[in-house]
Specification:
Blueprint (H helix, E strand, L loop, with lengths): L1 H19 L5 H8 L5 H22 L15 H17 L3 H9 L3 H27 L10 E2 L9 E2 L5 H18 L18
Parallel strand pairs: 1-2
Helix pairs in contact: 1-5, 2-4, 3-7, 5-6
InterPro entries: Sulf_transp_TsuA/YedE
Keywords: Membrane, Transmembrane, Transmembrane helix
Pfam family, one: Sulf_transp
């Protein structure tokens, strides 16, 4: 019961933060994806960087049990699915997590997004045997592997480099990138071309 309560509290706090940084607003998502407002992208990079530093730093200090670490297997279908997810995110302005949070804030368009996602998941389940038989779900590049060797984990690594050091370096790189990126890479400073006064 404690685990469920903790999950609800953490999920609620995470949802609150997602909403506060604008991740539940399709307009902000659109501006991020067309590079006219990178505030959300910078926040995402910062969160990934801090999370990586905390996880791998905690692992090095013995505070994090990497035995619970989960690694997604590499297969052609997951790359195709990633492209589809990105396209859907751009079209709808939501990804699965932000769509649920947006629905929680009362956005009706998010309810349609969730319904579409559930319908898509059901269609995938019904057609799963065909996808499995196609070979798109067969592991490639070693299947469940990490970039560097993480001591105590059950996963093989692509390189012989220490995974915890790699995780720290990549995390710090994301943090630096979050602060180094400009506010926009495209468009005018005000988000639209300035019109001369008449």
């Amino acid at each position: 019961m404690t685990s469920i309560i903790l999950a609800i509290v953490i999920g609620g706090l995470f949802g609150f933060v997602l909403d506060r940084v604008g991740a539940t607003n399709p307009t902000i998502i659109g501006r991020m994806l067309n590079l006219t407002n990178l505030s959300l992208a910078k926040t995402i990079l910062l969160a990934i960087g801090v999370g990586s530093v905390l996880m791998f730093g905690g692992q090095m200090l013995g505070l994090v049990n990497v035995g619970h670490m989960s690694v997604k297997a590499a297969y052609v279908g997951v790359f195709i699915g990633g492209l589809m997810l990105g396209a859907g995110w751009a079209l709808a302005g939501f990804c699965p997590g932000t769509g649920v949070v947006a629905a929680g804030t009362g956005r009706k368009d998010a309810l349609y997004f969730i319904a579409g996602g559930l319908l898509g998941a059901a269609a995938y389940m019904v057609t799963y045997p065909s996808w499995k038989a196609s070979g798109l779900l067969d592991s490639i590049l070693g299947g469940k592997v990490t970039l560097g060797l993480v001591p105590g984990s059950k996963f093989e690594a692509i390189t012989a480099l220490p995974g915890d050091i790699m995780g720290l370096v990549l995390g710090l790189g994301f943090i630096v990138l979050a602060f180094a990126l400009p506010d926009r890479l495209a468009g005018q400073p005000g988000g639209a071309a300035q019109q001369p006064a008449e």
